[in-house]
Amino acid sequence: MLQEKLRKYAELLVKTGINLKKNQILVVRTPVECADFARLISEIAFKEGARDVVLNWSDEVASKIRYLYGPDDLFNYFPSWQKEFYLSYVRQDAAFLSISASDPDVMKDVDPERIQRYSRVVSAEIEEYRTRMMNNENVWCVASVPAPSWAKKVFPELSEEEAVEKLWEAIFDAVRVNEEDPVAAWDAHKANLKKQMDLLNDHRFKSIHFTNELGTDLHVELPEGHLWLGGSDLTPDGHEFIANMPTEEVFTAPKRDGVNGKAVSAMPLNFNGSLIEDFEIEFKDGAVVDFKAKTGYENLRRLIETDEGSKYLGEVALVPYDSPISNTGILFYNTLFDENAACHLALGKAYPVCIEGGEKLDSDELIKRGINDSITHEDFMIGTKDMKISGINKDGVEVLIFEHGNFVL
Q: Cα(376)–Cα(145) distance, rounded to whole angstroms?
């Protein structure tokens, strides 16, 4: 039974998530712990007509050793061969599948300054790759496979084997593999998300207002020409793909200097291999002006201070509290899942496609249009069961969007 579900999942990622074209190259970034599933992806992709399948292995334990014991200047440069790897494939119209299966605590003993410094270097060196991904010029998809360390974090009361098995089932539910026809289930889901997008786009709200009993009280202005997106995406030539599997959100870009108030976290944030918990961020005229955290304050500070754009928001996303992932009651410690269980915001870069014609604009032009730019993009969750969201239209009329954590629009 498990093998049957694994194959259905792999086929769903290749055929629906990536929607692989004949003779297209597929690059799979995968942890070494997920090798068996990556090989299954490779087999299916080749059978679907892939020109090549490139497995780009990662090993977070080896990375931790490197951060702990490598010379300090090692983190000041990115090897040219690795830069060429990304740029070469992105320029060949390759599709990119990333398997997210990180241990949320793996880097807790590592100097966060080293991680952040190296992250800046990598982002700068592969800026062309990042820009093409954010503009949907290449097909991409992020999905997850259980790694033992991650599964034990989610289900600490179980044995490693039982934890992995239970996490597999949770993933299968979230990505609709347990449905009789997963492809048909995704078609219906995309249609439902499109209805929500169309309603929000029709209203053309000037701003939205978030409140809940945790203490979130946030006014978010929206730039002129903003677009709500969700479900599937399109490349410029009309190739449909799903960037995140699972996905339950509809999202847009906030106005860079139009965010005011306080956002309080509803879930921990796994950032650079360490957890940031019980935190809140205060904004004025778009920028972070104060923040606090019960756990991970230094990591939160480093995130906010990554660059000039990291103190501004780049995304605002609406997710019903009564959604499949939220209803599991599972805290996944993995942003791919947790962000699809709650309304969330993102510090850093905005998706240019969230504004009319944005994919054709450079960084300076986007900022002039009110869209943020940064080398980082980090989602954090604020949605709760009592979340209320109102939209204010151009005439100043308030329209209820969410009540008790769910859509009422």
A: 24
Q: What are phi and psi of 380, to 5 degrees?
A: -140, 145
Residue 179, judged by CB atoms within 10 A of its CB (0-12, 13-18, 19+), counts as middle
Per-residue tokens: 325: 């992932």
* DSSP labels, 265-307: -SS-EEETTEEEEEEEEEEETTEEEEEEEEE-HHHHHHHHTSS
Is 60:87 a contact under the CB 8 Å cutoff? no
CA distance 229 to 192: 12
- Compute φ and ψ for 4, nearest 5 degrees: -65, -45
| Helices and strands, number each (H, E), in the chain | 12, 20
Total-model pTM: 0.92
pLDDT tens per residue across all 409 residues of the chain? 889 999 999 999 999 999 999 999 999 999 999 999 999 999 999 999 999 999 999 999 999 999 999 999 999 999 999 999 999 999 999 999 999 998 988 998 999 899 999 999 999 999 999 999 999 999 999 999 999 999 999 999 999 999 999 999 999 999 999 999 999 999 999 999 999 999 999 999 999 999 999 999 999 999 999 999 999 999 999 999 999 999 999 999 999 999 999 999 999 998 888 899 999 999 999 999 999 999 999 999 999 999 999 999 999 999 999 988 998 999 999 999 999 999 999 999 999 999 999 988 988 999 999 999 999 999 999 999 999 999 999 889 999 999 999 999 8
Phi then psi dihedrals of residue 214, to 5 deg: -65, -25
3-state secondary structure of 222: coil
Distance CA 199, CA 409 (A): 8
Contact between 267 and 104 (Cβ < 8 Å) = no
Kindly list the distances between the CA atom of residue 10 and the CA atoms of 39, 120, 316, 334, in Å, as whole numbers in the listed order. Answer: 10, 32, 30, 20
